[in-house]
Write a structure and sequence with these properties.
alpha+beta; two-stranded antiparallel sheet; two-stranded antiparallel ribbon; 6 strands
Length: about 160
């Protein structure tokens, strides 16, 4: 698999390797093969674009990914260059890719209050608190992206701008 920046990914494999090499928390990234890393980068890019409501507008109506974007200010209210992908997006993608290489970013587990349930060959046991919510898993990624998005998919939050006259 060969990934293409702007189509499948926001970062090159070389950028991801350099970023991960500088972060001890991502040391396992070095153990993966290039095809695994490329698949993980693709999954991370898809996750980012599906999970965040980005500020601004895409700069080209035919671009495959959500970035680059125009009319975006960062968390310090500085204009984001509409011709480039912010480093925060790239960093978040690499952080997510490292997690994706180790396992799925989106889990399809069911949890609930049921302690045990057996019906023939089916045996279901749920225990409260077993799964970590997505928002908890990716809090670092959310922090990296602060200022670039208005909401997260499934976050249940509503953001609004209040204007005072």
């Amino acid at each position: 698999m060969t990934i293409t920046v702007g189509t499948d990914t926001y970062v090159t494999l070389a950028e991801a390797l350099a970023y991960a090499a500088a972060r001890p928390a991502l040391a396992l990234w070095a153990d993966y093969t290039d095809p695994v890393r490329e698949a993980a980068l693709t999954e991370a890019a898809i996750y980012l674009d599906a999970s965040y409501a980005w500020k601004g507008q895409i700069t080209d109506e035919v671009q495959a990914l959500a970035w680059p974007r125009s009319s975006v200010l960062d968390k310090e209210l500085r204009p984001v260059d509409p011709d480039t992908v912010p480093q925060a997006i790239k960093s978040a993608q690499i952080e997510l890719a490292a997690m994706a290489a180790a396992g799925a970013l989106v889990e399809s587990k069911t949890t609930g209050n049921v302690a045990s349930l057996k019906a023939g060959a089916v045996d279901i046991k749920f225990v409260d608190g077993q799964n970590v919510r997505e928002g908890q898993r990716f809090a670092w990624v959310d922090r990296l992206l602060t200022g670039l998005y208005t909401s997260r998919a499934g976050s249940g939050s509503i953001n609004a701008t209040v204007l005072r006259g």
